[in-house]
Amino acid sequence: MKQIAVIGAGTMGNGIAHTFAQSGFTVKLIDRSEETLEKAILTISNNLDRMVSKGILSEDEKFKTISNIITYTDIKDGVVGCDLVVEAATENVALKMTIFNQLSQICDHDVILASNTSSISITQIAAQVVHPERVIGMHFMNPVPIMKLVEIIRGYSTSNKVTKIIMDLSVKLGKTPTEVNDYPGFVANRILMPMINESIETLYNHVAGVQEIDTVMKLGMAHPMGPLQLADFIGLDVCLSILNVMYDGFKNPKYAPCPLLVNMVMAGKLGIKSGEGFYDYSESKKAEKVSKQFN
What we know:
Helices cover 50% and strands 14% of the residues. It has 295 residues and is α/β, with parallel strands linked by helices. The chain is globular and about 55 Å long.
């Protein structure tokens, strides 16, 4: 594989593009919004600068990584000549179906089509595609350039050949691929999301406050980040979407989203991306923290 297309230039998409580009692949980063693409390149550049400052990369390696990324606003132009397309759009079933239906029409039949979905059925996605045996899940973890795990999800029709190619490719990216079967939430979110949801229920039922809940899990369970802080980092809208997928898939009330989570998402309190979730990430709060450091 030489050329990779990544569809979606948001948090996961730009992280995936960064990772492939840093590993020497030519990456075609596709998004409908030119502004989102510009923001993505800036984010990648800033992340590379941090790696350079820590001695992880040289300036020359940073330049090569950036030069490996080409941006497109038209999906048809972006996927031309690519060996692999990785879809990293919003966790929305209808949107992903539309994208894969389009890819089926414009990509050659030997192009591997992967989804970075964190919960949606690969078998369902593959049903939109001619030759569904080439469709597979590549669930990267955030932040993609740092986190080592990639969940590799086989759909009902995914071939052994495609699975091996993607497993080997993940190793070349410096990742640890772990093969899982196609059930709602796969492994990571089937275990993680009920814990986050229960943490929100604990807050909702006034058992303890946000910081207290996170402190118990960090100090008592040795988690590097508390579940409520982690939910903010993932995005509360994403958490809600994943829980809804699992609830619909399993018909089990243990996956039903907490009413507090539903209300926060409706109110636009999505976590870091909106500036407020269970914690305050606004510019005024950042300024307050800086002020405390110097006083």
